[in-house]
Structure formats: structure tokens, C-alpha cells
Amino acid sequence: MGFHAPLVLLTLLLVAAGAAGYVSLARRRAARAASFANPALLANVAPVSPGWRRHVPMALLGVALVGLIVAAARPYSTLSVPDERASILLLTDISGSMKATDVRPTRLGAAKEAAHRFVDQVPEEVRVGVMAFNLRPWTLQRPTRDREAIHIAIDKLDNEGGTATGEALNGALQLLRPPLEPGEEPAPAAVVLLSDGASTKGADPIEVAREARRQDVPVYTVALGTEQGTITVPRRDGSGRTRTLDVPPDVEAMAQIARITGAETFTAPDAERLSAVYEQLGSQVGTREEDEEIGWMFVGGAIVLLLVGTGLSMAFLGRWV
């Protein structure tokens, strides 16, 4: 919580001084009453004192006054709200290494399931696009609010080819940052990049990440798979036999891309973890922080305290304070 007019809070010093004066006055009053007669006889010569109840209405009045001063300082709370102009691009690696079964049913299968959950977590006001890549990127669905179209695009993801992460990021920037009219502000945009391997061809993804930073497009990265991941591929000698390749995720490269663009990076060694990562991203990507004034809460509380204080004063003392 913060305040738009924090200097108003200095008025609370006057309330503190008033409270100190009230306590001092109450003590002098008690001292005068004690000196009036023998304490043992005081009850017979003076009316019954309301005791601590005398102070309750004043205490409530003081707290109500504090509430009104805090309200005058215009307190606010910062909330995350959907940004209706925002676009998120799901950029998913569909290279051959995504066939590895160290994540069940396969890396790509788990990615598709998690992507569906991710779309359901993103606020409806936010546009979501789907892009696949191996040695080149394919736009399967331009950013849209049509959730059914997004789910259909996710289902089209299929394995083949190598990995060209830099080319994929270039394609994502071209899609999210089209040419603008003079004076037009670029809409908020972000990329969620899911890949399991090192880039093997094309543009350097680190250089493209720096360009993404210049264009204010954060790239959230998810490194999918385990160090033990393998795939089986045909031998190149035409014998029809196969060989096994290790396909560990390139965690460091993915982390560097996210770090350069000012985003977060995640590792997802299993399907459950991947789903949790996507759900977390769905609740934070495509939102913006907005200050909402909450002074009305303090005003309402002060009014309630004033009413309660008035009622107790009439009940305990027969008068208002």
C-alpha cells in the first residue's frame, strides 16, 4: 500500500498530541477526585464513576479521526489487472528431440497439454498466439482472443527437424512488433519460449534476445526435459539401423535469453512441473500493475466507529463524550 498525498499523514502528530493531552487530563481529574475525600468514603459522597467506560467513546473517536486522516492521504493498493492490448506468443520447439520420452508421454505431448492449461489461465482480455519452430518458424495462430482457435493451433504441433531458436525469436518479434503508424505506441507483448535443446542453425539467439530487449518484448523461457533424455534416429549410412542420441535441455542458454530480456526462466523436468510453470505464467504474463485508491475503506470504517462511539457514549455517560 502507498499514498498519493503522504504529507497529510503528518496530521497524525496532532492526533497523538491530543491523545497525550487527554490522558494527562484524565490523570489530573482522577487525582483531584482522590484528594476530595478519603478514598474509603468517596463512594458515599460522589456519584458512581463510569470508570474505564468513560474513555471508550473517546478512544473510538480518536481511531475514527486517524482513519479519516489516512483516507485524506489517498491510500492506494497496487493490483495486477489484465492489459487488453497485450499479446502473448507461445513459441514451441517441435524439433526431433521433442520426441524424447523422459517427459511423459513425450516432451512435445506434455508441452501441448501444458499449453492448453496455460491458455485457460490467461485472462480473456489478453490475446494469445501460437508459433512452432524447428529449422524455421511457423505461425499457427496469430494473437487472438478466440480461445477455441488457439486450442486448435496447439493441437497442430508436431515433431520434425532441427532447432533454430534465433530464427524463431526473429519470427516472434516480426509478428509481435509490426510497423507502427506515426505516434502509435507499441502494445505490450511477451513470448513464452519452450525448448529442450541448443540452437543448431540460423541466427544467434542471444543477439536476437538483445533485440527483443530493445523492443521491450520479454521472453519467458522454459527448458523442458532431463539430462537423461534420448531419442532414436536412423543411421545415415542407409543401413536401416538406428542410433541413440542424447538430448539434454540447454538450461543455460534458455536462462540467458530470459535474463537479457528481463523475464524469468524455468526448468521443467517432468509434465507436472511444466503444467505448474505454465499456470504460474498464465497468471502473470499479459497483466499490468494498476493503482486503486482505497480511501473509501478508511472513511467507511471511521463512520462505523463514530456511530458506535456515539451509541456507547449515550449508554455509558448519558451524553456525547
| Main β-sheet description | 6 strands, mixed
Distance between the termini: 34 Å
Q: Give the fraction of residues assigned to helices.
A: 40-55%
Number of helices: 10
Strand content: 15-25%
- Count the E strands: 11
Which blocks of ≥5 consecutive residues have pLDDT under 50?
A: none
Give me the secondary-structure category.
alpha/beta
Mean pLDDT: 83
**Secondary-structure element order, as H and E?**
EHHHEEHEEHHEHEEEHEHEH
What would you call the shape? elongated
Radius of gyration computed on alpha carbons: 33 Å
Strand order of the largest sheet: 5-4-3-6-7-10
How would you describe this structure to a colleague?
This protein has 10 helices and 11 strands. It is an alpha/beta fold. The strands form 3 sheets. Strands 5-4-3-6-7-10 form a 6-stranded mixed sheet, with helices on both faces. Helix 4 runs antiparallel to helix 5 (147-155), helix 4 (107-121) packs parallel to helix 9 (271-284) and helix 6 (165-176) packs parallel to helix 7 (205-214). It starts with a strand and ends with a helix.
